[in-house]
Design brief:
globular, alpha/beta, 15 strands, 9 helices, 296 residues, Rossmann fold
Length: 296
């Protein structure tokens, strides 16, 4: 079963702002396309940067414009675990995207021994190398496999596991269920960190936001510590860059959950210096941390 993010909207968009988006024409140059067993894959270039699309949706990419440079901005939340465990040695990515975040992990985490990358899409690795300047290193292992099957068969314990998975039809709910989260926990070290990107209404704790709240409730039964980042900084950057609009328009966000049993992010240090080498103002993203409300 797939969850289509647009179907999670609770509140209607501002009509005036929606019309601006509808009337904004962004010319794209098609650099690559292929249809696999799982996705309709496109690589496109426009005045804002270069992007990977599955069917009609942006899945990954690199912005290169005056307003913003770097990953799709929601991916920058995946860099927060550095503040929780700078000594991480083994990392697992389920879902590769452009691969830029993986190369950033190599820069940020000085003690990394191994980065395992799992993706079911056979074209994603060569696309990342050719179009998004992904650099392969001897620390990396690539697995062309379903993420759940990989986890069930793997014996490796990871310090950080990141899942960011979507396809033509939205978010695969197999990666949002209690059984999956229990497998994840069994593959984490004692201080391990699990990061998951979930689609949600921006009105996160509205009782109508059932998919997100049910998933959060499942996670709360498995992890004692959950940090929620509401995605508002990411949304503002996206709308400002693409449409010159200073606030989010649609009632959809990437809600990032960082889960652990023994860690909390330490933001009392000179974090800007740490992230400067990645050209990321991480403090902006940290301000999106949202207190989790108990609605059940």
């Amino acid at each position: 079963m797939n969850i289509i993010p647009e179907n999670l909207e609770i509140h209607k968009a501002n009509k005036t702002l929606e019309n601006i988006i509808d009337n904004t024409k962004i010319k794209e140059k098609l650099l690559y396309k292929v249809k696999s067993d799982f996705h309709d894959i496109y690589v496109v270039k426009n005045k804002f940067g270069k992007f990977l699309k599955y069917k009609d949706t942006y899945q990954a990419g690199i912005f290169d414009c005056d307003n913003y440079k770097g990953n799709l901005p929601y991916i920058n939340y995946f860099l927060i675990p550095y503040l929780m465990n700078k000594n991480a040695k083994n990392v697992l990515f389920i879902g590769m995207g452009s691969g830029k975040i993986i190369n950033q992990y190599e820069i940020l985490f000085e003690k990394l021994n191994k980065i395992d990358i799992v993706d079911i899409e056979e074209y994603i690795f060569p696309v990342a190398e050719k179009y998004f300047d992904f650099k392969v290193s001897d620390k990396m292992n690539f697995y062309l496999q379903d993420g759940i099957i990989y986890l069930k068969n793997s014996k490796t314990k990871y310090d950080i596991i990141i899942t960011d998975i979507a396809g033509n039809e939205g978010c695969d709910t197999r990666f949002c269920e209690d059984e999956f989260f229990k497998i994840i926990k069994s593959r984490l070290t004692a201080k391990g960190i699990f990061v998951i990107n979930l689609p949600s209404s921006r009105d996160i704790f509205n009782k109508k936001n059932e998919f997100f709240l049910n998933t959060l409730n499942n996670l709360k039964g498995i992890f004692s510590n959950i940090n929620l980042y509401n995605g508002e900084t990411s949304n503002k950057i996206f709308y400002k860059t693409f449409f010159n609009i200073d606030k989010p328009v649609f009632d959809i966000t990437n809600a990032i959950l960082i889960c652990s049993n023994k860690n909390t992010a330490n933001i009392d240090e000179d974090i800007e210096e740490i992230y400067k080498k990645l050209n990321i103002e991480i403090a902006e993203y940290l301000r999106d941390k949202t207190e989790i409300q108990n609605i059940f």
